[in-house]
Design goal:
The structure is a homodimer of 269-residue chains.
Chain A lengths: L3 E4 L10 H5 L2 E9 L2 E2 L2 H15 L6 H12 L5 E8 L16 E7 L10 E10 L14 H7 L9 E6 L4 E4 L3 E6 L2 E5 L9 H8 L4 E3 L3 H5 L3 E6 L3 E8 L2 E2 L4 H13 L8
Parallel strand pairs in A: 1-5, 6-7, 6-13, 10-11
Antiparallel strand pairs in A: 2-3, 2-4, 4-5, 7-8, 9-10, 9-12, 12-13, 13-14
């Protein structure tokens, strides 16, 4: 059986969908700019990696591209979400064989802009559970992120930084983390928890930064900090907790490199 | 807003339901016997505890009882599932305020019977991530269980035992674990991972066993092992990996105690 492809506004999701019951799925959120999804191939490959980890059949590529076209037609900026679940299933954790996966496609508005002068971030009290089998992929078990996001409501706080259960800074609730140490950008290893974001992947591919296990002091004592994700691009940080952070020229260099490659990110969102 | 209560066969779940997108919900599976759900109050209280952890509004109790009545009318044995999700929400982890949670109610067949002479269990290669904030509640982030259940397809293997990330035996894929050591039944602490099952809770309330941090040797060298859950009751284990396990009189005592209190469990399922 092939994977059903459904536009979300027309979708009637079965009550026994395993995405609904167990978070048994993976998703992608793509930036739309001028009617075009950014980093399509990278998103598709990550979806494929996640689907392989969960052993969910992938939809047919060209059919997905075709289905997305209607949602992309309005040239306004926005967000495209692909949600691939294993589809309906009996009660119980054993997936049905064969499964009938479903890809839900939906369009959303951009999030509110990130402050151009930098956002303020805090440390989350929640520590991410360590699960190497799921680390890196964008699966639908996101209660940790939901709980972490509920820790604050102050609109002057823009994000939280999360450590894993062994105390290693790993990511923000909705983005990856980069810190400047001794003139080098470092980003946490994601072998134990976190999502391997595609803006992070793009930066690493440009030679901007490298992966390393970080400790809290690496963040607290950094010369600069930014977050990033594929919808908003680079998100400069002006304060971590009580500590003010500079926005040095090295941060401008990174933002300009991304904006030069992808004009969608010329303005901080 | 009150919580919508929907029978699953009639349900049209929104594509933006947070249960579907993030596993943002909790559930209960109740044994139905002779048209009556067992341990209703205990299930309701656990649903309430889980909803409180996630800050999801609870449905009105009497309305749920009323809605369940139609599904309970056939007197045949079965399973009743209650699935409470936070309902629809915008893209992003921050829950909408106010949310419009939804309770989906569905009826299912009993699982195939567990061997009366004992089931064979294996050790899972997967180690459960440690997340004290979610440990014990029956939330919908169940990818670890889905992956663990996919590790074997041999029909002569009936369950897997799971350790947590620190190596402590915690539970089976779909049940809790009891081991007999020096004449005492022990069951793992569930402060780091696992679901606090209601058959386990019933047994502990009867003074049958107590909670303790276990190590693998406690299981490997146990004088007897059983699993349990609220749908199937006591599930005797006749082998853990290559090691055969006895089904001693102490195990019969436990099974008889449960069967005396709840005749639904007089026959091993």
């Amino acid at each position: 059986m092939s994977v059903a492809i459904v536009l979300a506004e027309q979708a009637s999701v079965r009550a026994d969908d395993r995405g609904l019951n167990y978070g048994d799925g993976v998703f992608e959120t793509l930036r739309i700019h001028a009617g075009r999804p950014l980093w399509w191939d990278a998103h598709w490959q990550r979806l494929r990696r996640g689907a392989a980890v969960l052993a969910i059949e992938m939809p047919e590529h060209d059919a997905v591209v075709h289905a997305c076209a209607a949602l992309l037609a309005p040239a306004a900026d926005g967000v495209l979400k692909l949600l691939l679940t294993r589809g309906g299933g009996g009660r119980g954790y054993a997936p049905p064989e064969p499964a009938q996966p479903q890809l839900l496609i939906s369009r959303h508005a951009l999030p509110p802009p990130w402050p151009a002068a930098g956002g303020r971030v805090r440390w989350s009290q929640l520590r991410l559970g360590i699960q190497p089998l799921l680390a890196g992929i964008k699966h639908c078990n996101r209660l940790e992120q939901v709980l972490a996001r509920r820790e604050w409501s102050d609109p002057d706080i823009h994000e939280s930084l999360l450590c894993d259960a062994l105390g290693a800074p790993t990511c923000a609730v909705s983005g990856n983390l980069f810190v400047l140490r001794d003139g080098v950008w470092l980003t946490p290893l994601l072998d134990r928890a976190g999502v391997a974001g595609l803006c992070r992947q793009w930066l690493l591919a440009q030679g901007i930064g490298h992966e390393q296990r970080l400790c809290v002091a690496d963040v607290e004592q950094a010369d600069a900090v930014f977050l990033c994700n594929a919808v908003r691009g680079i998100l400069p940080v002006c304060a971590v907790g009580e500590r003010q952070m500079a926005l040095p020229p090295q941060l401008q260099v990174v933002m300009q490199a991304l904006a030069a490659a992808e004009p969608a990110f010329a303005r901080t969102r």
